[in-house]
Amino acid sequence: MRPAARARALVSRLVFPPVAAGPLFAAIGIWLASAMLLVTVMLLCSVVFSSRGGAAGAGLGFSFLALLVSIWPPAVRYSFVGLGGAAAKLLGSQPARLKLT
Questions:
Q1: pLDDT digit string (tens) for 11-70?
Q2: Under the phi-then-psi rule, with left for phi > 0, alpha for psi from -120 to 50, and beta for the rest, what region is 4?
Q3: Which DSSP letter does residue 92 get?
Q4: Do the Cβ atoms of 41 and 65 come closer than 8 Å?
Q5: Which tens digits make up the pLDDT trace of 58-68?
Q6: How many other C-beta atoms lie within 10 A of the C-beta of residue 30?
Q7: Rg (Cα) of the chain, in Å, rounded?
Q8: C-alpha span between 8 and 98 (Å, rounded)
Q9: Distance (Å) of CA 47 to CA 55, 58, 60, 61, 79
Q10: Any idea of the CA torsion for 96, 97, 100, 101, to the nearest 10 degrees?
Q11: Crossing angle for the helix pair 21-48 and 83-91, nearest 10 degrees?
Q12: Closest by CA position to 89, among listed 19, 16, 18, 27
């Protein structure tokens, strides 16, 4: 290992505390599920609309609508709009309570 890489690793260990891998990977999985949902909606919009601008606008409209719906607490608890908050709670070592079944 080169000295510069060794120095970077040492500074990283001094500055950042160790992190448990379980909550980190759970948050990554939740983020991945949310990203896959948005990509699926964008793909569906590109199939339904013949113009690229219309498909992009419909996909952006869906994500904006999801952000607006995330204000309502029952929607956050019982639908996909609560995935972002659940990932943040997992990283903060708080229990994430979602009922997606």
A1: 988 898 877 778 888 888 888 988 999 899 999 999 998 888 898 899 899 989 988 998
A2: alpha
A3: T
A4: no
A5: 989 998 998 89
A6: 22
A7: 19
A8: 39
A9: 8, 11, 15, 16, 25
A10: 120
A11: 160
A12: 27
The residue whose two tokens read 């719906």 is 69
Buried-state track 65-96, b at ≥16 Cβ within 10 A, e below 16: ebeeebeeeeebeebbbbbbebbebbbeeeeb
Write phi, then psi, for 36 (nearest 5 degrees). -65, -35
Start-end of H helices in the chain: 3-15, 21-48, 52-69, 73-78, 83-91
Kindly report the number of other CB atoms within 10 A of residue 59's CB atom: 19
